[in-house]
């Protein structure tokens, strides 16, 4: 036997019935985004490596350690599998001059890739749903994006999600804070772990994000960015907070929240849960007013967030908020292969009328007995069996048999219905039929 080929570790297949939950979640998200005026954008999975080096920052963990980067064998171009969605959306906005006629609101869905050790909630191929508001400078845009995420949790019925909020100020203020951090940590160099020493002169803000218990007291006493903010930055942050307060959206100001990408400044935020262990961040984002210019566009502001689909689905499952998987309205039982010329047109007419029908078909073992077909009909979850027997077909009819107690639809006992009048009775099979 030929050896079996498995998927790459950390890159997972999504099959039914789980895929139905993915489709349901995507539908819920699309409906919410449409009510907020966001439109879909789809960018390539493969982008120039320079996009992420320049956009995310050369000394970020993603660029240094996690990106799948490679050389195009055709022309030697340096490429990368996208590790996040914002840079690609901004690149598309710049390339196609999407902001020429004013601000834009976009959302995206799709796979991202990071080369790391797979574990619960962290995969090499993972999926994000994200939103980007381009050309909007005011704090009300930050608050609206945060509100949109809070509305999503409410509509999904999710509990135990808390909002953490911070501001990174403007670049000059961040630079002053950076120098203060370097000076402070230099004075305590003997207490820094290897990761902190590596980041000290390249990205000292990330030291504040350390999970090392031995460094917590040191980090807590480090200079605070809030102490370096000027009146404009403080006013922006205060307005965001007031707008959230006005809507009753609870939050905690976390001065250690810095996010891992260089393009953030002003508002940053995370929605976190204690229900998923170490991988507790389910949605994160912030403002990135300098990124559009950094990627070659005319200076324009931007703000956005992304959520991890796998983590949201895991949380929905843990909180028993996933809907039941949809079942077909009917299952077609076909005792004799000679019936296909009558069966197929009838099923086509039913489907055109909005009825979902699974057709029994020939396998390597043949059509199978009526008993085995009924077993398959029951296992499918279908509400009704459609029996295309010789007697029924001779009379131009099909037998309809309910398979469930309290079945949806209006046919409650086995009956025969005319094939020539499918459109007149098809709605009686549908799960949404009204008595």
UniProtKB/TrEMBL annotation:
Its EC number is 6.1.1.21. InterPro entries: aa-tRNA-synth_II (IPR006195), aa-tRNA-synth_II/BPL/LPL (IPR045864), Anticodon-bd (IPR004154), Anticodon-bd_dom_sf (IPR036621), His-tRNA-ligase (IPR015807), HisRS-like_core (IPR041715), HisRS/HisZ (IPR004516). GO terms for biological process: histidyl-tRNA aminoacylation. L-histidine binds at residues 84-86, 114, 128, 132, 259, 263-264. Keywords: Aminoacyl-tRNA synthetase, ATP-binding, Cytoplasm, Ligase, Nucleotide-binding, Protein biosynthesis. It is an enzyme of class 6 (ligase). Residues 25-335 form the Aminoacyl-transfer RNA synthetases class-II family profile domain. Belongs to the class-II aminoacyl-tRNA synthetase family. This is Histidine--tRNA ligase. The gene is hisS.
């Amino acid at each position: 036997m030929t050896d079996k080929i498995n998927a790459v570790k950390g890159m997972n297949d999504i099959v039914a019935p789980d895929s139905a939950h993915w489709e349901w979640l995507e539908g819920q998200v699309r409906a919410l985004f449409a009510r907020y005026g966001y439109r879909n954008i789809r960018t390539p999975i493969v982008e120039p490596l320079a996009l992420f080096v320049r956009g995310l920052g050369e000394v970020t963990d993603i660029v240094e350690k996690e990106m799948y980067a490679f050389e195009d064998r055709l022309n030697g171009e340096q490429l990368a599998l996208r590790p996040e969605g914002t840079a690609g959306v901004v690149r598309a906005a710049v390339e196609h001059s999407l902001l020429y006629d004013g601000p834009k609101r976009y959302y995206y869905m799709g796979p991202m890739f990071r080369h790391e050790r797979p574990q619960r909630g962290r995969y090499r191929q993972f999926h994000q749903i994200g939103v980007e508001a381009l050309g909007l400078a005011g704090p009300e845009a930050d608050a609206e994006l945060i509100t949109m995420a809070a509305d999503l949790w409410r509509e999904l019925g999710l509990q135990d999600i808390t909002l953490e909020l911070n501001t990174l100020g403007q670049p000059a203020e961040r630079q002053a804070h950076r120098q203060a951090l370097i000076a402070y940590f230099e004075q305590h160099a003997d207490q820094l772990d290897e990761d902190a020493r590596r980041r000290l002169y390249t990205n000292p803000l990330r030291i504040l994000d350390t999970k090392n218990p031995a460094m917590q007291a040191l980090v807590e006493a480090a200079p605070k960015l809030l102490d370096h903010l000027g009146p404009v930055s403080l006013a922006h942050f205060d307005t965001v907070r007031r707008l959230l307060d006005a809507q009753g959206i609870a939050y905690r100001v976390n001065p250690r929240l810095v996010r891992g990408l260089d393009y953030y400044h002003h508002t940053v935020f995370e929605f976190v849960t204690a229900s998923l262990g170490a991988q507790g961040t389910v949605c994160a984002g912030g403002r990135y007013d300098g990124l559009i210019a950094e990627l070659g566009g005319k200076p324009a502001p931007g703000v956005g967030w992304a959520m991890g689909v796998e983590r949201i689905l895991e949380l929905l499952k843990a909180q028993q908020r996933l809907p039941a998987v949809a079942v077909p309205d009917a299952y077609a039982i076909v005792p004799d292969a000679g019936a296909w010329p009558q069966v197929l047109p009838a099923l086509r007419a039913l489907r055109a009328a909005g009825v979902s029908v699974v057709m029994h078909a020939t396998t390597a073992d043949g059509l199978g007995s009526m008993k085995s077909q009924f077993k398959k009909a029951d296992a499918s979850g279908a509400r009704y069996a459609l029996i295309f027997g010789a007697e029924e077909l001779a009379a131009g009819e099909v037998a309809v048999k309910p398979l469930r107690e309290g079945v949806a639809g209006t046919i409650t006992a086995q009956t025969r219905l005319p094939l020539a009048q499918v459109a007149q009775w098809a709605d009686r099979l549908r799960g949404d039929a009204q008595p």
